[in-house]
Design goal:
Number of strands: 0
Number of domains: 1
Number of helices: 5
Radius of gyration: 13 Å
Distance between the termini: 20 Å
Largest sheet: none
Strand content: under 5%
Shape: globular
Length: about 80
């Protein structure tokens, strides 16, 4: 999960469409997700962070350790980097 959270942290940090307040809000949510010890609750926290551009979703899911089979099955039409 750590690699995926690092990816999302950088994604939101460098997203030019977000203002500083939005970036800070995402950072707080990412830190909260990192600090959750219950796996189920951490998964819910990460799901709530996945409001990203559809074309970027496969890359984010790869960093969150989703398998290529999963991506091919559920996101077949999205471009994969």
């Amino acid at each position: 999960m750590s690699e995926g959270l690092n990816y999302l942290e950088n994604y939101f940090l460098y997203d030019v469409s977000l203002d500083e307040i939005a970036k800070q809000n995402y950072q707080v949510r990412i830190n909260d997700a990192r600090n959750v010890t219950n796996r189920f609750e951490q998964t819910k926290a990460i799901q709530n962070l996945l409001d990203i551009r559809p074309r970027d979703l496969p890359e984010a899911l790869k960093h969150l350790k989703c398998s290529s089979d999963f991506l091919d099955k559920y996101l077949p039409k999205l471009p994969k980097k």
